[in-house]
Amino acid sequence: MAALREDSLAAAAAVDERRLCDRLDAMARIGAIPGQGVNRPALSPQDIEARALLLSWARELGLAASVDSIGNLFLRREGLDPSADPVMTGSHMDSQPKGGRFDGIYGVLAGLEALEAMAAAGVRTRAPVEVVAWTNEEGGRFPPCTMGSMVFAGARTVEDFADVRDNAGIRLGDALAQTLAATPDAMRRPPGGRVGAYVEAHIEQGPVLESAALQIGAVTGIQGMRWFNVEVSGESAHAGTAPVSLRRDALRQAVAMIGALRELTADPADVTRFTVGRMLVTPNSPNSVPSHVLFSVDIRHPDAAAIARLGEAVEQTCRALAGTCEVTVTPTLHDDPTAFDPAIVTLVEAASGAIGLPSMRLPSGASHDAMYMNRLCPTGMIFVPCERGISHNEAENAKPADLAAGARVLAATLAELANR
Amino acid sequence: MAALREDSLAAAAAVDERRLCDRLDAMARIGAIPGQGVNRPALSPQDIEARALLLSWARELGLAASVDSIGNLFLRREGLDPSADPVMTGSHMDSQPKGGRFDGIYGVLAGLEALEAMAAAGVRTRAPVEVVAWTNEEGGRFPPCTMGSMVFAGARTVEDFADVRDNAGIRLGDALAQTLAATPDAMRRPPGGRVGAYVEAHIEQGPVLESAALQIGAVTGIQGMRWFNVEVSGESAHAGTAPVSLRRDALRQAVAMIGALRELTADPADVTRFTVGRMLVTPNSPNSVPSHVLFSVDIRHPDAAAIARLGEAVEQTCRALAGTCEVTVTPTLHDDPTAFDPAIVTLVEAASGAIGLPSMRLPSGASHDAMYMNRLCPTGMIFVPCERGISHNEAENAKPADLAAGARVLAATLAELANR
């Protein structure tokens, strides 16, 4: 393994734990909810406020800001070779409805910290380095998740998602237009483009690093994921008068389907992940038989054959239990398992070792924007531990020293990549 | 059976089908939804608009309006004996979220038509006659149902319900204050008071009268009903990283509970009614394990012992399936089966027969405000057919001739009771 360049180590050494944590605290106040959590839905007023704060820091650092048609926000530090493909890092600023203060935003601010550390250490790079805040990674408000990176990678277009509606009926296209209008200073750019490499820092969201007492994880890949919306349509009726045998009760059938999907995905090895996280009942009144139920299905597995088998069985399982209701099963996301570039995984390990931080290799249980960037360029991720592996929860927590360690490895890795 | 008084028959004859249906049409425009339906939640702007329209008609007819602290609205035609207890009729103006244009509002407007018919026929009564529009009979927005009559009958107080919240988090107390502020012309009165008798007209909401090809049902009573809110609390977690075996998934346990409640209430005779009509999931995001689920349980049965047995088993059934979640089962309504006063049932039959309309006796599958009035005074109901028994559905429908027939029987019955 080759040794790291001096200036890569200098960039790592210039990372400031206090500055990074102060910025994390400032962001955590935007959309703060009780229990130290954050509710910052994609393209919401809180998202707009977070973008404005990030742009104010970018201005102080002299970074050039640009934004694409899905709202992905880019902050660029120029390199010595204007024709070189940029090295990118970043993550997302949106959160789950009851989310934590590190998920996503850590990767954006660790990227910003890496750029500031390079500047502080007087490190010039050949290629430009860009920090990106991807739009709507969570999909908590507008399914599906990783929307911004999906559009950047050309897997889907903005138009594909314009008519997606949140639980309040608001169109994504309208919320996006509001968000873009609130960011007049950032230069508009088309989605996509050439990228030299992409490295994303993130809290692990699982218990592995904490159990191993390690600060750094070199992420090898991301498990496969299938998402579906299941819509069950019956007929509303009076809860007191309609005989149960004659009802077309959408909730009754939805409950039966969820039970059968649970059996389908039962896994003694506890590797398969099955979640029904969203459910909307119409008319949602105690004494009306439900006429319509929409529920989400999220299935994940690291093995390509396993996830394919489970994903293919969802529609048939639901159809078999529709009774006298109608059922529509719509796939909303299909991600096969991802393997990151071995050279990037090795570089993250090398950077970590060079600055005295032991690391381990591990896969990601969660999906990330790195999944789509892996289609465009050599890609990897850096994980840092989080308390008890808890995430998508207000109680999500991480230690300042671990967060700074991740930013140091990121700074060294980015400097190394941008000087190749 | 004694013959009806001449002026009772004159009142019945003066009922105007066209006028009644025009008023029903005008009300159906307030909160109209596609498919000929109505969405007029209790204490909403639509409810306020319906109240204003009703009061405008009352003013034209010279009726005195008053309103009590839960928002029940009374329209009074004075009798010859100022000390006599009023004879009352009425129903409700709120609807289910996807409700029909006859449920409730028909009873209010049939009552108004009865008063106008008495005036047109020059019928004076000894006792005053009052039409009442009860607040929040449906409970679709603010559970439980029959709230206005419950408070009027002294079974509960306004304060008991002030903190009930709708699905948007709005307090009933605040919505009620807005509604009362929008009704400045109606004199304030305390809830309750002496009532001579109560007769409510309503569409059947079941298929019995239509099948029997009869226009009038003399209602003998109302089946028993138990309502519960079941709240399941777990812990939010990341859908990709949290092992299924370690999750405290509130939706998974709620689905298991609903399945078990369905088995508990399974009834080959198809008499038991079991409905889960309302379900709220938190945080309701596809890739977060649900931390909290609230669902409603509605169980009905005409037999007192059967409904008691089922009602008592709900909490234990849910507790047994809570897994590692916590569960709270809160009874929100407990109505034993109701038997109406035999003298009123007989009078409705007599009035129907005297004006040439054959009738039948039948029980009510739905609950009505008459249930609580039965605790205060001799009470009965008049049913008219509705198409295919469909109700709590936009497609609810009823024939003008049937609606007028019900109003005629109501006018004769009220005049008879008010002249005793």
Structure characterization notes:
Chain A has 2 domains: 6-223 and 337-418, Zn peptidases (Aminopeptidase); 224-335, Alpha-Beta Plaits (2-Layer Sandwich), CATH 3.30.70.360. Chain A is built from 13 helices and 17 strands. Chain A is globular and about 80 Å long. With 420 residues, the first copy, chain A, is an alpha/beta fold. The model of chain A has no long low-confidence stretch (mean pLDDT 96). Chain A has helices spanning 6-13, 17-28, 45-60, 105-120, 147-152, 158-161, 172-181, 208-212, 250-264, 304-319, 342-354, 370-373, 400-418, and strands at residues 32-33, 37-38, 64-67, 73-77, 87-92, 129-134, 187-188, 197-203, 216-222, 224-233, 273-275, 279-282, 292-301, 326-335, 338-339, 359-364, 379-384. The two termini of chain A are 15 Å apart. In chain A, the strands form 3 sheets. In chain A, strands 3, 4, 5, 6, 7, 8, 9, 15, 16 and 17 form a 10-stranded mixed sheet that branches. In chain A, strands 10, 11, 12, 13 and 14 form a 5-stranded antiparallel sheet that branches. In chain A, strand 3 (64-67) and strand 4 form a beta hairpin. The interface between A and B is large, with 71 and 71 residues.
